[in-house]
Structure formats: structure tokens, C-alpha cells
């Protein structure tokens, strides 16, 4: 551990560690909200289209908890926690979040999503699986991931320049109804969110790692379960509410965008800063990440819709995977 770990406020009492872990999650999620709010307000003041904001700024904002938790994990010498956070978050997003959202209300999938967005997420997941076969994500691997992230962003922004009028009407009406935030306030919100993300993720990672070691659980399992679930809360809330309100595009787009950002941006930047040797993340975990996105693609490809029973199937697979992780940790 280096000096950054001292900032994590890790007490010796396991109950205090658990309390600080929860507090760290709360600070990270609150900071992500502030960063997203400030970024969206600043983008609107600059005249950036709503659809571009949603595909870039908002999607990146909801991935900020995963980014800072993974970054601080890698810097603090717990790479399994960093990679486990990303892999676990993607599994959590695809199986549980889409599953719950579809059970709340069937999700309609656009043809372009089935043809382009889901396959791109599958390619990113498969690429990460192949990179982890040698148990290391080096700087060259990370550079490849980050370059693909830039490519993804370029194509996303270019494709967003021709939105459908009906899709943007509610968003624009809502934007006109709200008073515009001043640039100073937007920048202050972004700065406050950034500070909360750094401090909260450091506290969260330090105490999660301490609890894992005291219970004899590996960093990888903690990253795949508690850390991944905690940092995926924004996506869970956003997609479930969106599905309930009939906004299927937001529900599925939030998940796919987050999954791509998690792999390409988070591991790309994290690996460039601190190459990661992976020990506890197994082929089963990585394969489950690929299988989950394949299941979503198959369900979407049939009728361009994820029905309630298909959502239940995704959720059941997630429960089975969690049971596997827990049983393996206890054994």
C-alpha cells in the first residue's frame, strides 16, 4: 500500500470499516450526480444537442463511480478490485438491471441498437476476455482499449447529429421549462462532484479491501459483488425508472453505454496510469460478462423487444452467478 491508502480512513474495527464503506458509496454516488448535473448544464449552455449530451456526458457521468473506484484500486495496489469492479458492473448491468427493467415493463429495442450498439459492446467484452488470458492488462492493452473508446465516441457523436424530432421534443421542452444554470454554478458542481468521487472512492476501496482481507475473501470477489453493485446503483435507478415511464431507449442505452465506457474508458485510462496484474478474476467471470451481453443480443434480435419472462431469465442467471461466487468464496 502506498501513501494514498492513508487517505482512505481505514479503522481497525470491522464494523467501522463497514460503516465507512457504505459512507464511501453514498459520497461516490452523490458526487457522480453533481458531476453529471454540472456537465449537462454546461453542455446545454454551450448549445450541445440533448441527444449528444445523453450519449456522452450523462453516460460518462454514470460511469464515474466505476472509474474512480477502479483507478484508486489500481493505484493502491489492488488490481483485482479494479478489474473485478468493471467486470462485475457489466454483468450487474446486463443481467440484473436489464432484467429488472424488463420485468417492470417490456423494453423495446431499436434496430440500430441491435445491429450496432449491442455488437460493439460484445466486441469490447470479448476483447477484454482475450486481453486477460495472460493475467495482465499492460499499457499496450490499455492503449488499444482507449483508442477504441475514442473511436466509439467519434462514431456516437457523428451518428447523433441527425436525431429524430419526436425523440428530442420532450427533452427540449423539459430543458426550456427549467431555468438555465449559470456557467459558474455548473463548473462548481463539476468540481464538487470530482472531489467527492476521488475522496469517496478512496474511502470505499480502502475499507472494502480491509473487510475482504479480514473475512478471508479475495479482492476479486469483493470487486465482482459489493463494489460492482454499489457503483452500478445509478444505472439501476436510471434504467428502472426509465422503463417504468416507457422510455425504453434510455433504459437500454444507459446499460450499453455504461458497459462500453467501463471497459474501454475505465480500464483504458487505468491501465495506462497503472498496468494491472490480474490474479483473482477467473475465466468464468470474464466468460459470464460475454455470455450476458450475448443473451441480451439474442433476446433483442428475436422481436426487437425484451419481454418480462426474458427479463426474469436474465435476473435468474445473475442470481445463479452470485451464488457461484459466494459458494466459491466460502469453500
Question: Any overview of this molecule?
Answer:
Its main location: membrane. This is Calcium/sodium antiporter. Residues 18-156, 187-326 form the Sodium/calcium exchanger membrane region domain. The protein is an all-alpha fold and 331 residues long. It has a single domain (12-330), classed as NCX, central ion-binding region (A middle domain of Talin 1), CATH 1.20.1420.30. Helices cover 80% and strands 2% of the residues. The protein is built from 13 helices and four strands. The protein has helices spanning 14-45, 50-62, 64-75, 79-104, 111-131, 139-159, 165-177, 183-215, 219-231, 233-244, 248-273, 283-303, 308-330, and strands at residues 107-108, 136-137, 276-277, 305-306. The strands form two sheets. Strands 1-4 form a two-stranded antiparallel sheet. The protein has a two-stranded antiparallel ribbon with strand order 2-3. Helix 3 (64-75) crosses helix 8 and helix 6 packs antiparallel against helix 11. Residues 1-7 and 163-176 have low confidence and may be disordered.
CATH architect. name: Up-down Bundle
Number-wise, the strands total: 4
Low-confidence stretches: 1-7, 163-176
- Helical fraction equals over 70%
- Please identify the top-level CATH class: Mainly Alpha
Quote the average pLDDT: 79
Task: Look at the structure and name the CATH superfamily.
Answer: NCX, central ion-binding region
Which structural class should the secondary elements be placed in?
A: mainly alpha
How would a textbook summarize the main sheet?
2 strands, antiparallel
Rough outline: globular
Work out the radius of gyration. 19 Å
Straight-line N-to-C gap? 28 Å
Strand order of the largest sheet: 1-4
Strand content: under 5%
Under CATH, the topology can be stated as A middle domain of Talin 1
Number of distinct helices: 13
- Give helix and strand order, one letter per element, not per position: HHHHEHEHHHHHHEHEH
- The total tally of domains equals 1
Amino acid at each position: 500500500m502506498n501513501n494514498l491508502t492513508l487517505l482512505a480512513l481505514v479503522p481497525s474495527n470491522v464494523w467501522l470499516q463497514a460503516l465507512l464503506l457504505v459512507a464511501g458509496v453514498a459520497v461516490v454516488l452523490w458526487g457522480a450526480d453533481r458531476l453529471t448535473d454540472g456537465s449537462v448544464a454546461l453542455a446545454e449552455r454551450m448549445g450541445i444537442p440533448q441527444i449528444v449530451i445523453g450519449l456522452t456526458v450523462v453516460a460518462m457521468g454514470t460511469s464515474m463511480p466505476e472509474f474512480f473506484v477502479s483507478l484508486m484500486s489500481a493505484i493502491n495496489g489492488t488490481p483485482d478490485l479494479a478489474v473485478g469492479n468493471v467486470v462485475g458492473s457489466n454483468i450487474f448491468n446486463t443481467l440484473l438491471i436489464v432484467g429488472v427493467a424488463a420485468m417492470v415493463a417490456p423494453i423495446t429495442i431499436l434496430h440500430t441498437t441491435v445491429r450496432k450498439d449491442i455488437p460493439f459492446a460484445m466486441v469490447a467484452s470479448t476483447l477484454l476476455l482475450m486481453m486477460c488470458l495472460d493475467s495482465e492488462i499492460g499499457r499496450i492493452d490499455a492503449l488499444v482499449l482507449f483508442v477504441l473508446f475514442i473511436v466509439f465516441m467519434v462514431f456516437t457523436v457523428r451518428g447523433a447529429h441527425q436525431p429524430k424530432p419526436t425523440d428530442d421534443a420532450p427533452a427540449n421542452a423539459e430543458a426550456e421549462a427549467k431555468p438555465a444554470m449559470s456557467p459558474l454554478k455548473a463548473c462548481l458542481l463539476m468540481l464538487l462532484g470530482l472531489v467527492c468521487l476521488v475522496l469517496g472512492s478512496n474511502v470505499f476501496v480502502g475499507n472494502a479491501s480491509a473487510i475482504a482481507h479480514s473475512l478471508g475473501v479475495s479482492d476479486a470477489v469483493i470487486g465482482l459483488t459489493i463494489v460492482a453493485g454499489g457503483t452500478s446503483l445509478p444505472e439501476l435507478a436510471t434504467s428502472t425508472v426509465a422503463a417504468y415511464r416507457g422510455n425504453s431507449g434510455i433504459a437500454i442505452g444507459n446499460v450499453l453505454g455504461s458497459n462500453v465506457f467501463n471497459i474501454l474508458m475505465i480500464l483504458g485510462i487505468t491501465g495506462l496510469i497503472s498496468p494491472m496484474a490480474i490474479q483473482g478474476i477467473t475465466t468464468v467471470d470474464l466468460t459470464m460478462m460475454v455470455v450476458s451481453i450475448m443473451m441480451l443480443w439474442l433476446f433483442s434480435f428475436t422481436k426487437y423487444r425484451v419481454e418480462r419472462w426474458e427479463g426474469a431469465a436474465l435476473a435468474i442467471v445473475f442470481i445463479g452467478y452470485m451464488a457461484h461466487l459466494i459458494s466459491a468464496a466460502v469453500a
